[in-house]
Amino acid sequence: MSVTVEERGKPNTQDYRVFFKNSEGKYISPFHDIPIYANEAQNIFHAVVEVPRWTNAKMEIATKDALNPLKQDVKKGNLRYVANVFPHRGYIWNYGAIPQTWEDPNHKDSDTGCCGDNDPIDICDIGNKVCSRGEVIKVKVLGTLALIDEGETDWKVIVINAEDPEAGDFNDIDDVRRIKPGYLEATVDWFKTYKVPDGKPENQFGFNGEFKDRDFAIKTVKSTHEFWKALVSKATSTGEKYLVIFCRPEPLHCSRPGGSKPGDANQPLRNSKNANMEKQLM
């Protein structure tokens, strides 16, 4: 699958958006239109990079916006950035999400005792390459960390880019400990403290902050895929707010609620500022 991105607006402003296009040049949703699997038989997943390693702007898939572009998170009218908490600089991995997944806020996780955070499941890519914003990569799942963020379950899936030269050496979470000693401990420390500079308490974790292995992580990812399928089929009441903004299993550039004609999904782009910038990212 070939995906390009189109940037609208100026980075580090509230107008900035990153839209996605397929190989035909049609706008698509990174949340709904990019398949979860790159290779289902081998459990290789697609992931959308929201935040490249060592950057600070808190970018995210805009799940409530038409076409679900990337945009910078805003809190109390201000753009959000993560602080450099010593010894870390920005995000310490390529950070993003697996498409066609959803952590259901109506479902209480039996392991964490908390409901989902209402977003696609997050990934931390530990590969050597510093990815680009909006890049779509193929990833191997290695394990997962159960972050409890303000009372919500927020899984952090540890992955490696399947095209990384060292990807063959990584098959489970213990390989990360062996090959990249200290990286998992740094990951726990990062998620524990990254909100402290904003005056918030340290985050908590399920399983006492222990990482779960590859099989557990894959099972978790697949369960969030089932929640996503229920979401797009109107099986949950919470999902209604997504369904009114193109949350459909067919390509989202084709239709809008109320029976609009093809092409109307371009309306959000007409309202975006500045000329586009296209990049081939997959």
TrEMBL record:
InterPro entries: Pyrophosphatase, Pyrophosphatase_sf
Disordered: annotated span: 256-282
EC number: 3.6.1.1
Organism domain of life: Eukaryota
GO cellular component terms listed in the entry, alphabetical order: cytoplasm
Keywords for this protein: Acetylation, Hydrolase, Magnesium, Metal-binding
Enzyme class: hydrolase
GO terms, molecular function: inorganic diphosphate phosphatase activity; magnesium ion binding
Record's compositionally biased regions (Polar residues): 268-282
One protein family per Pfam: Pyrophosphatase
Cofactors (names): Mg(2+)
Gene Ontology biological-process annotations: phosphate-containing compound metabolic process
Keyword rRNA-binding appears in the UniProt entry: no
Annotated family: Belongs to the PPase family.
Quaternary structure and interacting proteins, as annotated: Homodimer.
PANTHER family the UniProt entry points to: INORGANIC PYROPHOSPHATASE
Protein name: inorganic diphosphatase
Organism name: Gouania willdenowi (Blunt-snouted clingfish)
Organism lineage: Eukaryota, Metazoa, Chordata, Craniata, Vertebrata
